[in-house]
TldD/PmbA family protein
Amino acid sequence: MSSEIDSSTLLSRASQLIDLAREAGADAADAVVVRSRSQSVSVRLGKVEGTESSESDDFSLRVFIGKRVASVSANPGFDLQALAERAVAMAKVSPEDPFACLADEASLSRAYPDLQLLDTTEVSAEMLREAALAAEAAALAVKGVTNSSGAGASAGMGGLVLVTSHGFEGSYMASRFGHSVSVIAGEGTGMERDYDFDSRLYYAELDDPSEVGRRAGDRVIKRVNPRQVPTGKDVTVIFDPRVARGFVGHIAGAINGAAVARKSSFLRDKMGQQILKSGLSITDDPLIVRGPSSRPFDGEGVSGERLVMIEDGVLKHWFLSTSTARELGLETNGRGVRGGSAVSPSSTNLALEPGDISPEDLIRSVGNGFYVTELIGHGVNMITGEYSRGATGFWIENGELTFPVSEVTIASNLKEMFMRLTPANDIDRKFGVAAPTFAIEGMTLAGR
């Protein structure tokens, strides 16, 4: 394990790569190694269906000559000098990019905190197999569950090694463990499927696999014998936390600086304006100790800080990397993420902050409406905000969840949905995108 965690050799090779790029004619450069170690076991109906194990250290070199930039990638064992010379040769014939650059030296992180992202617990393939089998067995033991789509357990770690030509050198690793299971209830054309999972940085904090299985079984039997409901044009829709997190992801996409620069966000002209109800906030914090998406520095060597992206309903920040910030006439806020050699902005630990009402009281306050547990399709236009998704869930009648519902569509515009959103108080921050149950008034529901 220690050899997998120790990054000193990779830092040394990355530093050599930078020196060779400068000798070959680069004005500036950075070298990044994306590290990955993982193992997983999948089972179905009590038998192992697959085991996987992988590890990689993927190198990328990015070089700058004036306003020209080029990037190359390689696996371990490559010739350092050949790679550096190739990158420089490519940069010399590349078109100019007025925004591509390293982060300003003044913004680089010189010291960063230990965020306790790495659990070195050794998890064997046998432990993973037993966890997957336990999750599936618990789900199948729930009365009404008729079949299994499979269960799995995984363990791994990943991280980043980064060296730049203007003085940054750093690395970090983060672990990840998970249990999941998917099961079926009903027979023939009346079959329904549902699932549950848990994912944590620390193995000891994982939910017991039997509990994950039981939750999956409980969820699926409630979906049997669904009905359709009449079409309505002023329906209050409540989003279960599992789908609420995906909805908050739409907000994150709309306030991503890259989308704003491309003019592909429906919020591109809304900075400083109210886009959520007063009192609502969305935060993003890369420095949460043991946070699921924490990082001590971003893909350019810049340490981010906690930002209130939307405060009291008002849009305050875009997610920014250095090049995106320059294109918008701003400064990076440490949200650059490496995708190979490219850098683009992204969120870290993003949260729609909770309200002060319980989910049960929120449902009671609706009277009649629709509680969504799963969304289907990709009917979201991020340029216009038009929103239309297939949905399943439960009908709310007299403030109570009654019968399951399927084969309906919910629709509105995200701008209107944001302004009609009311959150409950049940947020679970173990996810990189966290959101409580919330209600959105005035949606169109297409049923029978």
Q: What stands out?
A: The two ends are 58 Å apart (CA to CA). The first helix runs from residue 2 to 5.
